[in-house]
Design a protein that fits this description.
about 230 residues, alpha/beta, single chain
């Protein structure tokens, strides 16, 4: 998933962002509500994780703005406020779930998995093409009886390719989909990541389904009889 994490304290934001990215998610981490508003106007997210107390626009206001725009994106609210009245206020503002600080990382990841299943874009925990199976919760790639654990960057790339089969994906599209809003990838970043992914696939005995379209980008082309599930 592409996640927007809005938390003004970097000592809290950075560990959560790292844990989410290690789980295979692409996370835009920001420290104030104004930047969050700008990103929400430019980018579609699968999940929002919002701190209640933020400089500028607070998390409750962001919740209301998202819901006023008729967006169904799941929202997880983080806050030190733990009274029933506070929880009711947060949920009434549009949050789908509520997590009291200090945040336990294991619980956060479990809440994220649960909220993903509510997303209008959720299509199950496994992507499959023929005998090639990508497990979204574990970053495990399986082919027949062989399996390998992908690194987060390899996983994100393969997931994106498998969700867009037989489409020519440009370098620009891949950079926008696979890098955070404030990252500037090196000129060979896509080619380097693609090379590592191809090595992983070949080690499993998978024929090369990733085609280089010279001057344009790449295309995930499984044999015509293989459908994505």
């Amino acid at each position: 998933m592409r996640i927007l994490l809005v938390e003004d304290d970097p000592e809290q934001r950075e560990p959560l962002q790292t844990a989410l990215m290690r789980s295979g998610h692409l996370v835009d981490g920001v420290g104030d509500g104004a930047i969050a508003q700008r990103l929400l106007s430019d980018q579609i997210y699968d999940l929002l994780i919002l701190d209640w107390m933020l400089p500028g626009t607070d998390g409750i206001t962001l919740c209301r703005q998202v819901r006023h725009a008729q967006q169904a994106t799941p929202i997880l609210l983080l806050t030190a406020k733990d009274t029933t009245a506070d929880k009711v206020r947060g949920l009434d503002a549009g949050a789908d779930d509520y997590l009291v600080k200090p945040v336990d990382v294991a619980e956060l990841l479990a809440r994220v998995r649960a909220l993903r299943r509510r997303s209008p874009h959720w299509c199950g925990d496994t992507l499959q093409v023929a005998a090639l199976r990508l497990h979204l919760d574990t970053l495990q790639l399986c082919y027949h009886d062989s399996q390998v654990l992908l690194k987060s960057a390899e996983f994100q790339l393969l997931e994106y390719l498998m969700r867009h089969p037989r489409q020519v994906l440009t370098h620009g599209q891949l950079e926008q989909a696979l890098w955070t809003w404030d990252a500037v990838p090196e000129s060979n970043a896509i080619a380097s990541r693609m090379r590592r992914l191809r090595q992983r696939l070949q080690a499993l005995g998978v024929e090369d389904w990733i085609t280089t379209v010279y001057g344009m980008g790449y295309c995930f082309q499984p044999p015509p009889s293989h459908e994505t599930v």
